[in-house]
Amino acid sequence: MQKLKLELPIVLPTIDARDQCVRLLTDHLNHMRGVEEAHIVTTNGAAELCIHYAPNLVSLAQIERIAGEAGAQISARYRHEQFPFTGLDAADAANVLAQALQALPRMLHASVNYAAGLIFVAYDTQQLTRPQIDAVIQRWGARALPPEDAVPTPSQAGADEEHAHKGAPAFLPHWIQTRWELALVALAGLLLAAGWLGTVFLGLPSEIALIFYLLAYLAGGWDIATHAVPGLLRGRFDTDVLMLAAALGAALLGEWAEGAFLLFLFSLGHAGEHYALDRARSAVNALGALMPQTAQVRRSGTVETVSVAALALDDIVVVRPGDRIPVDGVLAAGAGAVDQAAITGESVPVTKVVGDEVFAGTVNQESALDVRVTRLAADNTLARVLRMVQEAQSQQSPTQQFTERFTRWFVPAVLLLVALVIVAPPWLGWMPLSDSFYRAMLLLVAASPCALAIGAPAAVLAGIAQAARNGVLIKGGVHLENLGRLRAMAFDKTGTLTQGRFRVTDVLPVAPLTEEQLLRLAGAVEQQSSHPLAKAVVEAMEARGIAAPAAQAVQNVAGRGLLSQVDGLPVQIGSLSFFQETGGIPIEPALAAAVEALERQAKSTILVASGGRMAGVLALADQPRPGIAALLQQLRRLGIAQLVMLTGDNRAAAEQIAAAVGMTDVRAGLLPQDKLVAIQSLERQYGPLAMIGDGVNDAPALATATVGVAMGGAGTAVALETADVALMADDLSKLAFAVGLSRASRRIIVQNVAIALGVIGLLILTSVLGVVQLSGAVILHEGSTIVVVLNALRLLVYK
C-alpha cells in the first residue's frame, strides 16, 4: 500500500477544507478501484488530500489523474456563490429565508446575513439552478441584487435605493420614491398626531378621529404588511407578523390610537435600524470603492486608458501623482511616497523605490511611477481582502449561534403562551376575555426578539468593518470574539518580536582559513536558503566583494542546518547542538567556549565544517523591533497577562531579547514541530491562546492556536489564507488595536444580548401582569432594537 499527498487547493480550487465538497471528493475517491482510503490531513497549516492506494491495482499517474478529474468535476458541478440582497425588514426573517433555502433539494449550504445584507449558498448545479434559488428568495419577500464584477465594487451599491423604491407608486416624484420608507413613517406620524391632538384639544368627533387612525394604520402598516402577509401565507411567523397581529388586536379592542402608535413606532424603528445598518455596511463597501476602474497602461510606446479588468501580467501601468494605484505590482521606474493606509492601516506614507511591492487602492503621493503588474484585478490584495471580509460576515460568532438557537424555539413558545393568556384567564374566571386578549397583544409585542436577533450580528459587522478600515483583517465573528477573551499570547521571535534583519557581527575562522575564506564557504551554501540567517551571511559575503562558488546537492535539515558540497568537499552548516548530536566532527574546547561566549551576548551562531573538520564560527545579531516593549506593555494593560516567546534560538540569546522587550515566559531551542507541542501546552495552562507569527514558517502553530495572527498580510498570500487574523502591515503596531477592538466588540455583544433579554423578560412580566400599556410596550421594544444597533455602531469610531 502506498500513499500520495496532494495540496487541496490544487484539486479543489478556492474550497475550504471544512466545505461539504471536500467530503464529496473523499467519498468519491473512496469508491474508486485500488483506493483503500482518501482523507484530509493538515501539514504545516495547509490542507492536503491524502490517498492510500494499491500500486498493483492502480498506478501513481492514474491516481493523480483520477483525483484531478474528480476535483474538476466537483468544482464544476457544485457552485459556491455570495451576493447582496435587499427587501427583508427583520433579522428573524433572514433566518426563515435561510431555512427555506436550506430546504431546497441538493442545497449543500445556505446562510443569510441580515446585518451584512449578503446571502451565501453552495448547491448542486445538476439538481438546482440559480433562477430556482432567486425564486425562493423572492417568495420570502427579498430580492437578490446583481453579482459583483471581477473588480471589487461596493457590494451593496444601490441596495438602499432599491429598498427605498420597493412598493413606492411609480407616479410619485423621484425624491419621494427614494425616501418611500421614511415618507410612510412621516405620514403615519402626522395622521396619528392629527387624530390624537384633534380629539384631545379640538374636540374632534370620534368618527373623524377614527378616519385619521385608519389612515395612520394604512401608512404605518403598509411596509410591514407587504412583508408579513405573504410570509404568513407561507407559514412564516416572524416579528412583522407578531406586530401586525398586535395592531389588529388593538383595533378589535377599539384601541385605535394605541394600535396606530404601535405601527408608527415599529415602522420608525425599522427605518432607524435600516439607516444604522447601512452605515455599517458602507464601512465594508468603502473598501471596494477604493479600487480604480481604469488604468493608464504603456503599450507600444504610447499610454492608453484601459479597464483594470483588461490588464495582463507584466503590463506597465503609469500612475500619476495623487492617483490611486490600480494594480498590485512591482515598481519598475520612479520613486516616491505611497499612502498605504487603506490596505495596511499605516498612518505614515511609505517610500517606494524600484523593486518594491505596491498594492491596488493605495495612493501615489509624489512623482510619476511605472508599475509592473504582478496580480490580475480579481486576485490583487484589495480584491482578496474584500472577499475575505465578506466571507467573514458569513461565519457566525458563538453568541450569534446562541441567539439563533434561542430564537428558534422562543417564537413558537411565545405563540403558545399568547394563546394560553387569551383562553386561560376567562376560563378560570380571573378576568374578562377583552382584558386577557389585550394582555395577549401586549405579550406579542413584548416577546418579539428583534433586538436579540440583530444585536450580535450588527456588532460583528461593525467590528470586522472597523478592523478592515485600519489594516486588520479578522476572518469571522468567532475570531473576533475569541481575540477579545484571550489572556495569553505566544510570539515567534525572529521577524516578529525582532526586526528579522540579521547582520554578521563576528567571523572566527579556524586556522589556516581566513575570514574571507570562511565567508566564501558559508555564503556558497547559504545563498541556496531563504532563512534570515542565511541572507545575512550572503549579504556579509557580498559586502566584502567575495565571489562564491556553486554549491552542490544542498540539503536542508529542518530547523537544524544545511548539508552540501563545495569545491568537491562535503560542507556542513548548523548550530553547536547540531554538530554535537550528529557527531563525527571534533569540536575544539576553545571553539565551543567561543560559541558559548557569543551566545551569552544574545548572538546567534553558525558553525561551518568542511572536509570533515571545523572551518569556523559566524555570529549574527538581531535587534528588537522599535517600540515593541511599549506595545507589549499596552497588551498587558489590555489584560493579556502571559506573553510567551517561542524560538528555535538558544536559551541565553532568547532570554536576553525577552528581558529587553518584557516577555513573561520563554520557550527556546524549539524545532517547528516543538512549537505545536508548546502551543498545546500553553492552551492547557492558560486557556484560549493567540499565536503571532509571519504566516509562513509559523503556519502549523498559527493553525493550532485558538487565534492565529499573521503579520505582513498585504504582501503574503500565505498569511491571508492561513491565519484567523492578518495584520496587513509588516509590524505589530496594530496588534493592540485589534485586541482592544475585539474586547470592545465582545463587551458590546454581551451588552446587546443583556439589553435584549432584559427588555424581553421585563416586558413579558409586565404584559402578563397588565402593568404597562400597549404604547409603553412598543416604545420599550422598538427602543431596545434601536439601542442595540446604535450600541454596535460605536465600534465604527473605535480608536
Itemize the secondary structure elements and their pairings.
Blueprint: E1 2-7, H1 8-11, H2 20-30, E2 35-43, E3 46-53, H3 60-77, E4 78-86, H4 91-102, E5 107-113, E6 118-124, H5 130-139, E7 143-144, H6 159-165, H7 174-177, H8 180-201, H9 206-233, H10 239-252, H11 256-289, E8 294-299, E9 302-307, E10 316-319, E11 328-333, E12 336-339, H12 341-344, E13 350-352, E14 357-358, E15 363-364, E16 369-375, H13 381-392, H14 398-428, H15 433-446, H16 450-469, E17 472-474, H17 477-484, E18 488-492, H18 493-497, E19 503-509, H19 515-526, H20 532-543, E20 552-557, E21 561-566, E22 569-574, H21 576-582, H22 589-600, E23 604-610, E24 613-621, H23 628-637, E25 642-646, H24 651-661, E26 665-667, H25 672-686, E27 689-693, H26 699-704, E28 707-711, H27 717-722, E29 725-727, H28 735-769, H29 774-793
Parallel strand pairs: 18-25, 18-27, 25-26, 27-28, 28-29
Antiparallel strand pairs: 1-3, 2-3, 4-6, 4-7, 5-6, 8-9, 8-10, 10-16, 11-14, 11-16, 12-13, 12-15, 17-29, 19-24, 20-21, 21-22, 22-23, 23-24
Helix pairs in contact: 2-3, 8-9, 8-11, 9-10, 9-11, 10-11, 10-15, 11-13, 11-16, 11-29, 14-15, 14-16, 15-28, 15-29, 16-28, 16-29, 17-28, 19-20, 28-29
